[in-house]
Amino acid sequence: MPSSEIVPGIHAVRGRFAHEFGFIASYLVVEDSEALIIDPGTAGDPGIDRVDKVMKRLGLDYRRNLIGIVCTHGHPDHVGGAGRFSRLSGAPVMIHQGDAGLLRNPHDFLKDRLLMDRAARFAMKFDKSPLRVNYKGIEPDRILRSGDTIGVGSTKLKVIPTGGHSAGHCVFYDMTRKALFSGDEVNNFPNDPRKFYVDLSGSIVAKRAALDLISKLAVDILLPSHDTPHLYGEVHLQLEAVRDGVLHLQDTILSHLGARETADIDQLVFDIKRARSVPVPKTFDALLATTIEVTLRGLKEAGLVSSLGNGIWTKN
After folding, report:
1. CATH T-level assignment (fold) for domain 249-315
2. Residues of the chain with pLDDT > 90: what percent?
3. Could you tell me the residue ranges of all domains in the chain?
4. Of 78, 156, 169, 174, which is least surrounded by CB within 10 A?
5. What whole-number distance in Å separates Cα of residue 81 and Cα of residue 273?
6. Averaged pLDDT, 205-222
7. d(Cα 120, Cα 128) in Å, to the nearest integer?
8. Architecture, CATH, for domain 3-242
9. What does the pLDDT average to over 129-143?
10. In the structure, what pLDDT confidence band is assigned to residue 2 with cuts at 50, 70 and 90?
């Protein structure tokens, strides 16, 4: 199904299947003849045509009734479509300051947010995954901050910066429906909540803190961008599985460092992929390498590892 109503007023608009990333979903929040889109997806998927069909079925027109375009963060599979949506509808684009730079300069995602060399960045220009950068930058209309609310009709979404998956990642909480639009902070990939990645601006410490914070909210409906919605008792199970995935990756890195005594990122990538002890992204090695780098930073803050310089790490 290209679209479905999760609960009255919240509609998932699903794009094409994107292999490891699953179906990329945008969400429409509709109330009182107003509509808000959360995560407009890539430059073409789910795309404005799919959103237009859903809105027409609801008796709405995106040119008149779309009042905002909200991005959980600045990665290409979440903001690539923002420019076209804004240009055609006139609706304002909203994002947190921590990722606003990616909206303005999309190629910074490859240059500054992933651990990859020049050859790998060049190869990404021909990539057709959801992470390809094939759109122009735009200026955000509104910078989101902690405690802000976004209104659509009488519905108010609370802005909660999380900063784990990326520096500017936010989740949006609908207290009335007890629904959380979680972007990539909880589920990065479908079917396995333990598999995740963070970019170089992200933080494992912040991710764990975000999971703890979300666990304390009254969430009955969890709405990720790369997985199916999770309802009621499933929400707690998802959060626990994500937390276990983070802890397991940390423990695995410490184990491999202990065995090697010293190691660089490439050696740890090799060891973790060969051991197959934790689920890891397979589309790009850069996703795993980047996540290991950020995890090592967090372990260093905790006093568990040390950097010896030149990219070499050791367990304390």
Report:
1. Arc Repressor Mutant, subunit A (1.10.10)
2. 83
3. 3-242, 249-315
4. 156
5. 33
6. 97
7. 14
8. 4-Layer Sandwich (3.60)
9. 93
10. low
